[in-house]
Amino acid sequence: MSTCSSSEIAEKKRIALAKLQAKKSQLLASASTSNGNSTTTATGALQQSSNGNSNPKQPQAKSPLNFYRSPPAAQNKISRIGPTSGDNKSSSFLNALKAIKQTSARELSRGAAHPYQRPNGGNERSRPTLSLGSDKEKPGTVQLGNSITCNLYMVSTHRFAVHTTGYHEKLVAVFKNMPTKSYESQTRIWSFDLSDYQSLETHAADLKPYVHMVGIPKKVMDLCRQPPIVPERSVLASIEPKLADQLMPFQQDGVCFSIAQKGRIMICDEMGLGKTYQALAVADYFKDDWPLLVCTTASTRDSWAKHIMDLLPRVPIHYVQVLNNNQQYVGEAKVLITSYNMMERHEDKLMQRKYGFIIFDESHTLKNSKAKCTTTAKRLTDQAKRVVLLSGTPALSRPLELFSQLQMVDSKFMNFMEFTTRYCDGKQSTFGWDASGQSNLEELKVILNLKYMLRRTKMEVLPQLAEKNRETVVLDPALVWTNDETKDTLDAFNKELKTSKGRAMEEILLRFYARTAEVKSRAVCAYIKTLVKEQKKFIIFAHHRVMMDAISDCLSGLKVHYIRIDGQTRSDLRSDSVDTFQKKSSCKVALLSLKACNSGITLTAAEIIVFAELDWNPSTLAQAESRAHRIGQTKPVICRYLMAHNTADDTIWNMLKNKQEVLSKVGIFAENLQKATHTAAPTSSHKIEEYFSPSKSTSLKPENNSIKQYFTAAPVNEHREKNNNVEKAKENKAESDIAAFFNDDDDEAFLDLDI
Ligand SMILES: Nc1ncnc2c1ncn2[C@@H]1O[C@H](COP(=O)(O)OP(=O)(O)OP(=O)(O)O)[C@@H](O)[C@H]1O
Q1: Nearest Cα residue to 686 out of 642, 648, 640, 712
Q2: Pocket lining: 631 vs ligand 1, CB cutoff 6 Å
Q3: Which value, in Å, is the radius of gyration of the alpha carbons in the chain?
Q4: Is the ipTM, as predicted for this complex, more than 0.95?
Q5: Which of 353, 483, 581, 685 is most buried by its number of CB atoms within 10 A?
Q6: CA distances (Å), origin 240, targets 188, 264, 287
Q7: pTM
Q8: Ligand 1 neighbour 629 (Cβ under 6 A)
């Protein structure tokens, strides 16, 4: 591959700009011919309103923010020309100009000569000029390309809002004429009743090509216009009494709603609100459509079998089969419980059995529409009459993750392009179709709530549930920064992270994450030693094996009775361990792998949840917190995040914040992880502290009750010995830890790293 010198690049840019300018003039000339002498632009109107100059005769001063300059006499007129091919070309051309705007601005700032010749001698009054102004459009300024986009989206089932990319006087006049208008001055958003939609669309169409309307998809409108389905309470009488009688009022509502939606629904209540109970109640109501297939995570298959036997006693035991291995025969059982993995492997046999009712537990497992598991699930749902998806966190990072799940509930709602264009800011990029963004999230929330998703938070439906508080604990730096080498390594990671991008940055962050586990483990163990003295039951979550092992050693050394569940733990032993922790008062600690145990188990015996490591996914952390904070919890729960500053924790904490903001807009994430009190005094103005609330402490001394007061710095030789062990562990485990990290199918979450 040959490379260009900077002067060659500059030359190429100049040529490209000249070509674009020539094309622009050509298009404008043809537009002018096709419309006689009436070619005008909205610029004048826009400009006037923005600077308060309403005198059409007054020639306006040239502003660097103006993109095109129309003759003053024409400025007050807005042509009502219909869309011509020239217009379309013109708008795409203007979009191209927008793309090169930044380049041009750079050229100009370098003091370069104007990169292209103005046609016809540069008559500034009648000739368009290229604005090289600031990127930030001030309200009321003309948009590049002389047109604005007006995006319409639903904000409730009967109201829609309008987002415009700039000010347009006539468009505002149209808004003001709508009978149901409402203007929110803070957000500068107009909204209207759906009854005004048609009229607004017609009037705005008159402002073409200066106003480009993006309307609401018909499917969305139809959905909103449908008469609401009123759930019938009487259906509860048809459900197995043992289960129906146990349902809490909000669970009854959920069951009635799901039945009203004909048993095709995503039940996405917050974790621990009894989705299993609701799903089984719906399944029991539609038992004529069985056989029933329950697909869940490998570790929760047995617990589903137990729930079915407990809650649906009329289902004979021999009706229920749990698919545990590859060799097993898929029989005629009325109820089959399988893991996702087994479902994939037995696809053909499951297809033949034709399950009429399917439950997908932890359905976010199906978030990747290209994964084999998801395509298998889709095939099965296509032939099933009822499909119930259960997840407290249906999307872990972005709206795209909802698409495949929605398809299983209603394959006709929207296709991939429609959905991603509308809700994922889908666009063509150098690498193909990019659907990793988000757009029209308010509308997506409306649609989900209307028909597809049932979502209640603990706060809403279970206010009596014991409270949950969150704390961040900055680990003692003396136990993290044990020697110069550690400091140098972490500094180097921080530096590399700042200067890298894309995949390279992801790789660095993964290594940094693994290294952080190593350097933190000593301080984490010191913290655990103090916690053990409190004699309260607690859970400690970690991700890397090096951290899990260090904590295990620490607990064993302290002779604490604890359970450990990680990815290697067999599922039968897993439920035994859970029982031990729940029932034995002597068992004080549950050491859990963040990935293997963030869902599907109940550990309400714990009062404190400690996170020795962070995860880059807010949903994983929220799921993990809900192991103890769920129905059945009677004591307040404290979640403590142990963090070491100037490590990967800084970056990951930041990522969490960004992701949870997106998810909360769609209404599927109710937590604010950053809403926490801190229990250690910051020693300098590092990033983590910026997110601490309620207030930042600038004290350099440990605060009262600070974790620091418990710590004493260990002698240096002891540090060295420990570091040697850490180094060995690093060599042995680093590779497998990174692999495990990627195997989680969440590595794509790094794509929206924003640091
Ligand atoms: N109506 C009920 N009566 C008694 N206990 C209930 C009821 N509903 C739920 N529970 C209990 O609450 C806990 C959480 O229930 P379940 O596991 O169904 O919640 P979930 O929403 O599926 O949670 P997760 O999302 O974490 O899987 C369980 O221990 C369950 O036995």
Answers
A1: 648
A2: yes
A3: 30
A4: yes
A5: 581
A6: 52, 20, 11
A7: 0.67
A8: no
